[in-house]
Amino acid sequence: MVKVLWALTVNTFRETIRDKLLYSLVGFAALVIAASLLAGSVSLGQDVRVFQNFGLTAILVFQLVITLFIGTQLLSREIERKTALLVLSKPISREMFYLGKFLGLALTLTVTGVIMGLIFLILVFAKTGAVSPAALFAVIFIILEVWLLTAVGMLFGGMTSPLASAVYTFCLALIGHASTTIWILAQRSGSVVRGILEFIYYIFPNLEKFNLRNDVVFNLTPEPIQIGMALLYFTAYTSAILLIGLAIFRRHEF
Amino acid sequence: MLALLPMLQLKNLNKSFNEKVIDNLTLAIPSGQVFGFLGPNGAGKTTTVKMIVGLLFPDSGSIKLDKLPAGSLAAKRLTGFMPESPQFYSHLSAKEVLEFVGTIFGLERPLLADRTKTLLQKVGLADSAKLSVRQFSKGMLQRLSFAVALINEPKLLVLDEPLDGLDPLGRLDFKKLLLNLKKTGVTIFLSSHILADVAEICDSVSIINRGRILKSGTPKALTGSRFVSLEEMFVETIRQDG
Predict the structure, then answer these.
(1) What range defines the domain where residue A138 resides?
(2) A89, A92, A93, A96: best mutation site toward chain B, by most B Cβ within 10 Å?
(3) How many domains does chain A contain in total?
(4) Is the pLDDT of residue B15 over 90?
(5) What ipTM does this complex have?
């Protein structure tokens, strides 16, 4: 079973890394992260803060773009191009197939995240002579965030077209990063609007839990409880989304 | 006596997509037979095939493969499937496709390597083994798909329009491969609309139209003295059904 899951994971990973778009995005991301040094240098006395904020935002944006253009489309493309028939007519459960796709995509996003993260951390070290634990956790959390969004993208990918699944995932990412604002708005609104906003706050992923940019910028070390809660939230939310996606995919007809 | 036990049994099968596509279909294919499933486009051949291999779910009725429910992992282990217009991961070579599918079947590395080599030779792709499948012609993809269907040495081989898109030489090669397989005792379910080829290979055939079986029997019995060929009988049967 592990062998089969590994074969599916590796196949998905190989499929994604043959995509030329991935190399363009990682290359462009490396340039932008390096360019964040310039952004820092034009700020008055805040160069390290601006550079770190700019660099981490660049990693998040490019990881998100990779998730949207490659990650969210893989399953729907596989259904559309009928390559899924090759595997699903063989002795493999749909659960295994789905999980293998997810893990393959997660592996790709981990590799791209590690490459971008390393470039960023090396530049941080070159500029400040040290790398804070917050910077390290910030990179790891960006990777976890795109894993979660990949699960969401696959859920949409099993139900709709490649383009629609990318658009929905993007919208969800935007809402997820506005969750703090949504909560504040909810507390200031009347009962009906408050109910709606609180529903949105709880049902959509709170991606701000994975945002450690402020900790990095203000040189704060994240509390273990903060890290633990974020990990717990990631595990629970991603598992729930994967289970819903699986339940839908189990009844999918080809 | 044992050879007559059904390898594949479809019982009161129904399937609808907005309208009824398969209508109370019942079939029993004895072990070791080559069965031809004939019908015009849109008759329900591919839908039936997809239900046999677990890609579609019947609305009602049952499908048993060697007494195992169709779509179950145990049933899939016994089955080789060649879809109509096969598609492969374009980043893989022919050899890698076979290795990938063989891994799914749980074949151990030395056996898999050996079987991959043998099958690529058998289907005439040994020289293109390391070529990416995106460079393959339709005929080459069909051959690879046939090799994939045989990787697990199946007891039941389900072929959906396998001769479609092959040139005359390719069709001749393919028929030879099927006739050789027939000798090994594999049960073959062959869906096709190329009747001349079917008549040569199949022990028995059924004609399907609008999801219903119209006629079943051996090609010889169905042709009888009334028709010159299976094709003539087929056209007449479909015409009568409207």
Answers:
(1) 2-251
(2) A89
(3) 1
(4) yes
(5) 0.86
